[in-house]
Design a protein that fits this description.
Blueprint: H1 9-17, E1 20-24, E2 29-31, E3 39-45, E4 48-53, E5 59-65, E6 70-71, E7 86-89, E8 93-99, H2 100-109, H3 112-137, H4 140-155, E9 157-159, E10 162-166, H5 169-176, H6 180-192, E11 196-199, E12 202-205, H7 208-211
Antiparallel strand pairs: 1-8, 2-7, 3-6, 3-8, 4-5, 4-7, 9-10, 10-12, 11-12
Amino acid sequence: MTFLSKLDEQALSKIVGAAKTRRANAGQTLQTAGQRPKHLLMLTSGRASYYKVTKSGDEIVLHILTRGDVVGLGCLLAKPHLSTVGANALSDCDLLSWNHRTIRDLAETYPVIIENSLEIVLRYLECYVDRHSRLVSGVAEERLALTLLDLAERTGRVRFDGIEIETTNDQLGSLSDLSRFTTSRLLSRWRRAGTISKERGKVIVHDPESLAVD
């Protein structure tokens, strides 16, 4: 399910044609927490993240965004509410951008946009419910394994020796609700077992089946 699913070619052409193209450099802010979004953005290349900054100043990664994912769904409301999370580019990104008025007009013409957006929000909610449940009742190893498998499926690049994931220990720890120490310890254990290996800013999963959780 993506923001532009279930649209015929004519509708898709109209919607994409109404967007402006943007380029965001790695590290650039796409959405600021506490502000009303002025544009709805869809990634056409690159990676971004939703994050939350705690009172102590720590940044918690909530979700990794990739091609087809969107930022600023609040723009579909008549009065966009304040964003509860921030979003920034993890790599150089290409995006389609619709301003508030444009995306509202398109949603009136093509109601499937609203349906798709609701499904996206419900999917996020389901993910966060599962994540909270695993935090309460799951074990650390399971949470990290599921994070790696999710990233491998959604963002991984297949190579001859496994699946390459662009990520850092801090990102993996945030997504798995683990401390930096625990994340490092588990990754080291899997590296010694040959399940994964690490390169700068990357994890290569050699044996996904060993990480699979029943």
